[in-house]
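## retry 2 of 3
previous attempt timed out at serialization; input unchanged, resubmitting
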Amino acid sequence: MQGDVTIIGGGILGMATALALCERTAARVTVLEAEDALGRHQTGHNSGVIHSGLYYKPGSHKARNCVAGRDALYHFCAEHGIPHERCGKIVVVLEKRELPALAELERRGAANGLTGLRRLSAQMLRDFEPHARGLAGLHVPQTGIVDYKKVLAKYAELVAAKGGTLRLGARLRAVRTMPDAVVAEHAQGETQSRFLVNCGGLQSDRIARLCGLEPGLKIIPFRGEYYELASDKTHLVKNLIYPVPDPRFPFLGVHFTRRIDGSVEAGPNAVLALKREGYSWRSVSVRDLWEMGTYRGLWNMAAKYWRIGMGELHRSLSKPAFHRALQRLVPDLACDDLHPAGAGVRAQAVEPSGALVDDFRFVQTPKMIHVLNAPSPGATASLAIGRIIADMAIKQFGLA
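## retry succeeded, writing output
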């Protein structure tokens, strides 16, 4: 039987989109997930931070959707009994040259609608984080923590309750477009529908090409590696402690995150992964390496960021170097207090020029919508992004 919409990808954005469509239309929705369980990749390797909207350029998709999605997510978690906490965070100035960047963060936060932002002196920092040290700081009360795998599971439960279908182990193999349908060929057979939405995350550009679209970019995987504080050292961090980010690089720098279970993560760094789902140095794909190595966008990017990249690589290979970066924020932290933890992989879209795609990117064709870039704060903004994609689908596909 032909359905109305097939969604490729059962991560948090794919399921949020399915939920929005099931809530707002009578469309028959099927989600195809490549793995045999949900949350195996970006959603399941998320740090668990509910982002405030502090960092993003006012007016950008990231800024608007982070703020709207954050508030929607807090409401959703409270409504469905998902453990979460609006704990706040501090951003710490370590050197005087970072003070203008902190002022810019405060300006952006205010422009994005954040309230209660508070500049902190060195002494005031200790009121929030007794073991943190810095010249100054900024307190951001809207930041929170949650387990995104539990959020994803609830999305999936609600989709099923509203008539949606989830097919696990349905890795996409090919897409055929016919005059009145789109046929997705996958490991479990075929799924035919009137329209298709690509929420494939780390595979989104490949899925677009299977659909006959040249996306004009390539997904380059960056692995972020974490340490965990020893259980008897978690008192060193009350909530979240971040440095002022380097404006030249789209990553936030190593930081401390208290998780909803009470553990404390430290990291991540950002190193080129050797496989799109490569969560360790031992995870290697010849195909992925060949694609990256023959893509001029990677080399153009490397020419611009190689010095920063070498520092990230050094922290990946050297625990003492990783420790020194963290110790700048919390001097009482000893190297032995850190234990290797998990890693995540960020799907970073890179253009042939080497430019890192900084904002969310959607491409529409007559029968399809492709989500080609949805990095952090994608999980925080998932409900808002899902509703935007649903709006696009309703308008473009004539769903009712």
